[in-house]
Protein 1
Amino acid sequence: MLKAARVHNSNHLLTLDEIVALQQQALSLSFDAYPSRTTMADLDTKLIDQFFSRVDRRGRVALRDDLQTNLVKLKLIREGKVTIAAELLFGAPDCAIRIGRFKSEATIIDDNVVRSPLLLAVEEALTFIKKHINLSYHFDGSIERKERWQYPLEALRELLLNAVVHRDYKSASDIVVKIFDDRIVFTNPGKLFGKLRVEDLERDDYVSSLRNRLLAEAFYLTGDIERYGTGFVRIREFLSSYPEISLHFEEMGDFFKVELRPVAQVTPPITDLERRILMLLRNEPTSSSSDLAGVLSMRRDTVKEYLGRLKKRGLLVREGSPRMGRWLLTDAGRTALADAGNSSS
């Protein structure tokens, strides 16, 4: 018998997935708490030991010496049966992360399919992504050079964790990651769960609804997840030093999509003075505001004001300490400088 639910001012028939979700909420269960056809013999005990070692070091829960007792305590074994969460974490899950490096929507250069247990899958996927995104090096005044990836690795790891923890494992579809020259796209099966809406994710105080509570708990206990419901807050924090990159998310049918792409804006032409500042910093990135003031015959406070404007427009970023740091031109800064050079020639 089909059930109906009240939505706004009208009734609509519930889908099978909605009925299952309501049943889970009524029983205080999440999908990953249901029994799997997997047995203990099918699980990787070495991986389980590694998991509990990480949990023990983190100290967020008290463990016993007995592996079986610990699995029961974390509800990864329930009523004597291996749960779906345990199968996903330590077994051979029937799902994957598909990653491709694309030159265009129709042209793929390289691809990989990660079918490992979830405890290994995130790092394996991140390793492949790192092969296909840009890496630059610079010096901040110290002996060692510093790396700057095209995207902050912490944000990429958080997006992968978000995908594996919150995806709908009832779906036969896989998580898909597409890497393009100028953007990276994460798509995972399952719309936002519960009452969470896309616009809620733009707020720092949003409340997460957990489709897979046991998976979320497992990654929380290992320290991969700091606190529930803060994933997109952390991603925005990681992107704060990448003003040239914007974060976008949306629901598409039965999927949730997240994209990191260049900031979509029309950059006004830079002035001649801004062009001179960018050229000086491109050639001497460790220059201070006092150095620039001397070269430009300007007051130091005026130079600092211009530097602030260029940072706000996403043309410059500052890395390192105030005394020992350096200035870096972003892609938008280099483009603006090139456009200014072309217009003056």
Protein 2
Amino acid sequence: MSENYTIFLWLLKFGAVANIYFLVTVGANAAAATQTHLVLPAQVLFAISAYRCLFPVRYENNIVFHDSIFSSVFVTRLLATFSEVAYIYVLSHVVRLLNIDQVGWVAALSWLMVLLVVMSQVFVWLAILTEQLELYFYEELGWAIIFAVNTIASAYLYLTVDTLGRRQMLLLLNLLFGAAYLPWQVVHLRFLRANARRSGETTRAGSPSILQRLATGLERSIRVKHPRRDAESWGGFIGLTWMAAYWATLIPMWMFCIVRVLAKD
């Protein structure tokens, strides 16, 4: 029998508590409240991450933990679209803010991050609606490039700007995250590629039946739910680390740290 993830999926709900704490804390911080362009995207991330901790969903094969109206691939993906664009915007804003010398290529890279996250949303929606697993690879490739770009820009600023004070810590966090995430993402991309090949899926965007397939995929994303608790259904160790880091720990804590540091300054 496959390894059972029931305990982990229940423990994941503690991530909702942490996210709600972050949500309330930044909202109550008078200094942070004046920076709505920074606080609002962070709060979107906290609220949606809390929801995902409570009602985990895996898009591939419409896997859910709870067979409930709140567990929906369509609803979760719709919320995640706003969340992901919001938090990458925050990271891009940090790069522009710390680009004291207004270096043109650094500013361009920061906006490239926003463009890439939008493109990744297109790929993941197409993957869900067409059930073409190969498209998940291109979505995640976009994320790999986003954080490679963020790491490059942060490394340049960290080495060339010496008047940042405590804000330099934000660049260091970018570098540490890049050092941990990028090797993990290489493994993840190889897993996605192998998974797509095993399934025998190919992208057929030019198929005459594309509209019908999109309509069918949309209906399935809304109505179909497969409650599962085994490791394989949830993506194994890669899926486990992704859920824990993205929804419950690293990403929310990172956003909270950004808001606190910039609010103090």
Protein 3
Amino acid sequence: MNDSTNPSALRSKAEICEALLRLMKDHPYEEITVKQIALESKLVRKTFYRNFDSKDDVLEAILDILVDEYKRHLIMFNQVMPIEIIFNFCIEHKEQLLLFDKNNLMYRILQKLNSALPEKHEELVKLGLVPKELFGGLDPSYLIPMNIGGIWNVICRWVRGGMKDDPKQITKDLTEFIIMLGEYAKKMVSPYHAAAQD
């Protein structure tokens, strides 16, 4: 992808991205061609290739924008529960998420989050927006992907259902389950923990 900051190039990139999203409403992503994207954006193929290498490159640009905005939402981490931030973000981007689900592309968002969020976590810790004790001194390199995967599977299930279920009820159920899971884990681990201290 061409990273030019020229206003004309930025406008062309935005038009191409919007064209792909419009096409995804009526055509499976796999069947969409560069020619269709160029026609839909009312730009010539030469302009397309001046800005992007392929259709997949356009999708990556859309994902980058989506994930960058998601990371900006995380700044509210200390004011709102993370799951609430995620649901609010998803509601704001409902149309795009439903398109991604329709085209079996939700996994691409997960891939982006897995690469972007560990880096963002470090940044938030340095800014003092995430408490250092969040992971209790445990290595976050596995805990962050576990959180992302768990929450993203919930989001995928919600999106697959048309985003109709009440996010507040889902949040309540998840919160109660996490508390129950913590209590259950303590019971399961305590015999091993006691044996290890003997």
Protein 4
Amino acid sequence: MGRTTPALQSESTRQTVRGASFADAREALGERGVELDEKSVRSLALSVGSKALVQREARINAARQGIVLSDEYVGKRIVISADGGRVRPREGGRRGRKGKNGRRRYATPWREPKLFSVYVIDEQGNKVKEIPMFYDATLGDPDAMFAILTAELLLRGAARAKEITVVADGAPWIWNRVDALADALGVERKRIVRVADFYHAVEHLTAFAELCAGWNAEKRRRWIRRMRRDLKQGKIKDVIKIMRDLCKGRGKAKMKTEVEYFETRKAYMRYHAFQWRKIPIGSGAVESAIRRVINLRLKGPSIFWRKENAERMLHLRAYLKAGRWDELIRSVIQPAYLVDAAQKAAA
């Protein structure tokens, strides 16, 4: 690729994905005695990213054919979370009339990349450190993200997992697809444990308390503390009843909206039972991944991306931050491994 060795491809791309810019990557390589200009560093990273995305599509197709590549999740308790971040892609600017400065205008609207995380927990609910996290992200729609998630779960043996838990905030685009995920994995829908993130629920309690007219700061704090305790003890019905009784005054409509949040998700808020079963009640893993994968590299003042380049960077950085860089590079440098693995699995 570009008259470079596999080792240079990997290291140059790794530094590009890890650093804050292509210039930083060039500087880091220079400190190691590797002299590349910024254009070459950028070209290598985008080439590796393109090949990695081709392999991702190949993995999706392999999963649809029923191929299982490993037993990573067989017999394990796995926890899945998903969330959205924010990126500003650079749209347009390639056609049309040029302005006074000689450049074509372009738009930079905010877009929401979708990211998921998968990790394994032991019987005490603690993360199993020996099995690294798995992240991936896309600027595609929710169906595109779930296609990637489903493929990776199937390829890694999640259809025979001991327990599957989905922990997420209240976003409908996540919960509306959990049943389809169960069907794709070939497991009963009731086998997937659904958990609404506890800390997002507390945020909604806080938003409700702010709408209660005549309450001072101390009364709000005491009420939130009590509702938080009741929520954790599994008294979701009591919490909803108390909130409904408080729906009065000018903020009544907004208060009812907050109550509706709990009504529609009360089956996912059995926190006392979840804690007894050693099931996580927070989606901190994916919240952290959003920051590490997206915010620290793709989001910032005056940072704009071509959509195709953002997709490459999201995919590469997800693997890097999950500690699975070698796994990704192997698929790029030795693309035939997927065919070989499929043949072994079939045998």
